Amino acid sequence: MILQHEAVPSQSEAKGNAPGRSAPRIWFSRCHRWAKDIAIRACGCLLLSLAVHALRLLHAIIEAVPRSEGTPGQYAIAMFAFLSASLGIGLLLLGYSISEPVEIADRWRPRL
Known about the structure:
By secondary structure, the chain is mostly helical. The protein contains three helices and no strands.
């Protein structure tokens, strides 16, 4: 019995583009590397400022009702502040180099 392979469309054809035409590129892929770096670092600054505002809000809520148990809303604000601060500092410090590949040591590579 001979198996016949079906013709698998390329990614650009699967997205509705004509055969042989590449997929349209988004505007960010046409920018220079330094522009991408500045945009990523600006997003990091924005996330850090959101974290500061969330922590100020949480502090104001806690000061209004001292010695109370934490509410789910307070925990949500704290979680948002932590996540946005963590992601913001990572984007701010690494910039565009966050997408560069990292070499893995031989001892951590899977052996086949």
